[in-house]
Amino acid sequence: MDRRRLVPRTDAVLADPRLVEAGGRLGRPVVKAAVAAAQDRARQGEIDPADVADAAVAALPAHAASLRPVVNATGVLIHTNLGRAPLSAAAVAAMTAVAGPADVEFDLATGARARRGRGAVEALAGAVPAAADVHVVNNNAAALVLVATALAAGREILISRGELVEIGDGFRIPDLLASTGARLREVGTTNRTSARDYADAVGPRTGFVLKVHPSNFRIEGFTGAAEVPELTGLGVPVVVDIGSGLLVREPLLPAEPDATTMIESGADLVTASGDKLLGGPQAGLLLGRGDLVERCRRHPLARALRVDKLTLAALEATLRGPVPPVREALHAGPAVLARRAAVLAGRLAGAGVDALNVPSTAAVGGGGAPGVRLPSAAVSLPERLAVPLRTGEPPVVGRIEHARLLLDLRTVPPERDDDVERAVLAAAEVRG
Ligand SMILES: *Cc1c(COP(=O)(O)O)cnc(C)c1O
């Protein structure tokens, strides 16, 4: 008999109460697609026609969006492919709270219009008292575009040849700056640039001097760069792109520049990312001299680069709230990590998994501090578990080293250890 005739009709399957409920939560198209896929599987003989509704229910996504939360066990603190900084619980709560109507540009006391995002701006200004004014845009690239457009369109930006940086995925800061109509005037050489090089190049067409922190590489050997204090007497603004978003000095990362130190040493403007070492949402921060920040804020382009209420809420909660996960991960003690790895590996080994606890080395990642090695601890597993762990629920992403899969615990919040254990047991197909 033709089994295709036994496949239940779409409307009959859709009447299943579980799928009706899912339609309200996920939207009808998502549910219909799951039903169609299950009917197909029944026609192919992969599943029994009687199981079509069950198969559709099992295949439903958890959310209406296809992006999935994952466990970052790579040991890379700021992993761009995994969404950079994970938000703190306080930031998540703040975002959720304002998902509906919120007073983002409204004064509840007077009923009048209010300054957009004032809470986040005040929190940022409060965190960097050295900055006379601050502004927030969509990301650091947007901050650079805004500064270049507002201060140097049709003019020149002086930049060292050693700081013509590609940030990642083909994104080059010089191309970004040139796209604004500003002309880049390169000074010095790849390995050495002096204050004299800038002084010789500065002129009536100079919009500003730009210093870019080489946040993802280091050059060693016969090198030299002019530091901010040597550039403040040139008669043009000094703008520093610090990249990582440290607002004050971080003792664990002594080579990583921070906004406060840069402004105190004479930078007129600092630009930074919100979702690197600051540990917040994707955002671009502009901090520094009042007149320059104001010129950026008043420029028509600023409207195209502004952030939404979710970003403003998350940024303010990151700045005012508890230590965000990136900082927790950075400061986690190696002994604590080693103990967690031993407990986890012990439990897995007890369940029959080939699991060992091993020392590991974590890194800050594309977000900054190249070359910094953070002592860590990992659970070492057979390499063949990498795919089932990535495709399991929740997906767990580790890294391969010497033909073993390492789950580095520095980037795993301690409260997720049990989830990781269950995921490994499921991937290894042993009973937990
Ligand atoms: C990461 C980085 C950028 C780009 O920042 P986004 O927030 O990703 O736009 C620019 N400059 C430096 C030095 C960086 O490290």
From TrEMBL:
GO cellular component: cytoplasm
N6-(pyridoxal phosphate)lysine found at: K276
Domain L-seryl-tRNA selenium transferase N-terminal: 4-43
The reaction(s) this protein catalyses: L-seryl-tRNA(Sec) + selenophosphate + H(+) = L-selenocysteinyl-tRNA(Sec) + phosphate
Main localization, broad class: cytoplasm
Cofactors, names only: pyridoxal 5'-phosphate
E.C. number: 2.9.1.1
Coiled-coil positions: none
Pathway named in the protein's UniProt entry: Aminoacyl-tRNA biosynthesis; selenocysteinyl-tRNA(Sec) biosynthesis; selenocysteinyl-tRNA(Sec) from L-seryl-tRNA(Sec) (bacterial route): step 1/1
GO annotation, biological process: conversion of seryl-tRNAsec to selenocys-tRNAsec; selenocysteine incorporation
Protein keywords: Cytoplasm, Protein biosynthesis, Pyridoxal phosphate, Selenium, Transferase
Recorded GO MF terms: L-seryl-tRNA(Sec) selenium transferase activity
Localization per record: Cytoplasm
Task performed by this protein: Converts seryl-tRNA(Sec) to selenocysteinyl-tRNA(Sec) required for selenoprotein biosynthesis.
Family affiliation: Belongs to the SelA family.
Protein name, entry field: L-seryl-tRNA(Sec) selenium transferase
